[in-house]
Task: inverse folding
């Protein structure tokens, strides 16, 4: 698989949904496969809250991409056929402009001064990337969770640029429960003594404990009750692999380990920006009904939900489809078993792979 | 689905109409209607393999069990609903029929006829009918609500459903003389265009 990582610079900046402007910005992008002559085989992947541009294959640090199970040679999204693009979103912390990068206007790290971006802003910035790549229509735009919201928003904002859209484990808006859970996570970060109102980088510290707690909560919401039972049950962690002496059960060890690892790599301000973008998303907010918002979609939609997902349950996907049917939009809605709860969209199952493959081929 | 049936249904489906097909199978009918009549079609299906076949054909499909209710499909502007060879598999056929007619102006129903003479002979010999048209034995069949042509027409009359058109097919899937004269005895399948009075 041909992989290219590139940083694109947008010197004209971008007007954000909240009324502010980023005077210039950068997006780090990974690209797989090759763009064909008539540029008709381009696929855009939109990452979820903690994802980044590294969607497939193994990178220099030996990390496997977040959607490697479904993206690659002869996989559901076949990089032998398609030119696949994935960028780290604005406000992220993996190389695109965000709280950990330098504000070109004053030469200082943005920190908490990085503006609150939105799903619409991400889509607009990805559209600017689209123009730089010379692509006039994406064959397929897809993502799970917050990434699914972007795929949906693309179809709404730029109907002529999307042929097919895959909206997986996503919703037209975050639920009250989603917002509530995110707020607990943010509170854990804000109350970390090292958070320092978001100015921790300048002071040379990191609110790791807060990020860790937030992520532990997150992981509970990404899994289903059944999956946790099957995977960990009430088993005790063996003494040799305990992450700390306070751990008894395997599930505790798992959450401790995942939280700790995440806290080393993820930025606290990014965490807040990303979760706020998720909470704020409501694709119908400018219109009185969902139907009006989807009216101009030209893409065919494939909406997939997973039975075990209680964070963005399948019914949320169904709402999008019912609105789409009302407005005569081609749209399919399927629900799959998926054992991993909300995280199911990341994992390959035979039916999931087949559905995507047949839909886009 | 036999070519004959899909041709009959195609004649009844208006050009450019919005169609919902309950139990759409692999999406063949919707695919044909899209090609020949430029319809906007949506299919309901519960079998994952068949759903994948729909996606492969570019047919819009919804994974849903018809027995679980169809409430959310009301007022979505369907011109015509199709239920081909599915009504006899439902837990509540009468309810489903009425629901279909509340969410679209017209509705096409096709169903196997248990009154067909070979079925009657089977029953006369004391066995549940197994015919080329109803090939599964009683314990394997999905058909839990089989009826005769007369039974179905009685239900329509009881439910104030108008039969706008009907066609009866013989075992060869054709409109035969005998199956038109005495459909309840000679037809293997009834094809109906219905409307709510």
Result:
């Amino acid at each position: 698989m041909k992989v290219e990582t590139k940083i694109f610079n947008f010197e004209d900046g971008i007007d954000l949904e909240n009324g502010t402007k980023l005077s210039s910005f950068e997006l780090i992008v990974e690209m797989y496969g090759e763009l064909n002559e008539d540029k008709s085989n381009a696929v855009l992947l939109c990452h979820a809250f903690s994802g980044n541009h590294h969607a497939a294959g193994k990178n220099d640090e030996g990390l496997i991409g977040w959607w490697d199970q479904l993206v690659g040679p002869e996989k559901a999204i076949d990089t032998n056929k398609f030119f696949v693009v994935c960028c780290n979103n604005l406000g992220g912390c993996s190389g695109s402009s965000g709280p950990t990068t330098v504000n070109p206007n004053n030469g200082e790290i943005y920190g908490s001064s990085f503006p609150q971006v939105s799903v619409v802003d991400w889509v607009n910035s990805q559209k600017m990337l689209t123009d730089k790549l010379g692509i006039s229509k994406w064959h397929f735009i897809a993502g799970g969770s917050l990434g699914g919201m972007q795929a949906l928003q693309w179809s709404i904002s730029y109907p002529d640029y999307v042929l097919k859209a895959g909206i997986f484990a996503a919703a037209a808006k975050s639920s009250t429960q989603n917002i509530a859970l995110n707020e607990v996570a943010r509170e854990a970060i804000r109350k970390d003594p090292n958070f320092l109102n978001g100015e921790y980088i300048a002071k040379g510290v990191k609110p790791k404990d807060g990020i860790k707690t937030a992520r532990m909560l997150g992981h509970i919401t990404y899994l289903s009750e059944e999956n946790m039972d099957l995977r960990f049950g009430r088993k005790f962690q063996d003494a040799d692999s305990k992450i700390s002496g306070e751990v008894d059960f395997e599930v505790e060890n798992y959450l401790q380990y995942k939280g700790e690892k995440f806290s080393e790599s993820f930025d606290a301000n990014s965490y807040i920006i990303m979760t706020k973008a998720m909470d704020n998303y409501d694709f119908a907010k400018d219109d009185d009904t969902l139907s009006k918002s989807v009216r101009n979609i030209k893409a065919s939609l494939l909406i997939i939900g997973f039975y075990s997902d209680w964070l963005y349950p399948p019914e949320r996907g169904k709402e999008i489809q019912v609105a789409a049917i009302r407005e005569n939009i081609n749209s399919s809605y399927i629900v799959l078993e998926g054992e991993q709860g909300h995280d199911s969209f990341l994992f390959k199952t035979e039916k999931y792979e087949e559905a995507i493959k047949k839909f886009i081929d | 689905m036999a070519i004959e049936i899909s041709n009959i249904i195609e004649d009844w489906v208006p050009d450019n109409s919005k169609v919902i097909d309950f139990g759409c199978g692999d999406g063949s009918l919707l695919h044909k209607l899209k090609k020949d009549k430029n319809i906007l079609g949506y299919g309901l299906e519960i079998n994952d393999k068949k759903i994948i076949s729909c996606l492969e054909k570019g047919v819009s499909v919804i994974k849903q069990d018809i027995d679980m209710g169809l409430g959310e499909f009301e007022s979505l502007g369907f011109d015509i609903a199709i239920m081909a060879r599915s009504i006899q598999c439902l837990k509540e056929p009468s309810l489903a029929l009425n629901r279909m007619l509340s969410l679209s102006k017209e509705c096409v129903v096709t169903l196997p006829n248990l009154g067909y003479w070979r079925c009657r002979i089977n029953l006369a010999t004391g066995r549940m009918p197994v015919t080329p048209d109803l090939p599964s034995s009683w314990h394997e069949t999905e058909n839990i609500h089989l009826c005769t042509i007369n039974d179905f027409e009685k239900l329509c009359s009881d439910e104030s459903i108008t039969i706008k058109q009907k066609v009866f097919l013989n075992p060869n899937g054709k409109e035969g003389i005998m199956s038109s004269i005495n459909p309840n005895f000679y037809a293997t399948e009834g094809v109906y265009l219905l409307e709510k009075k």
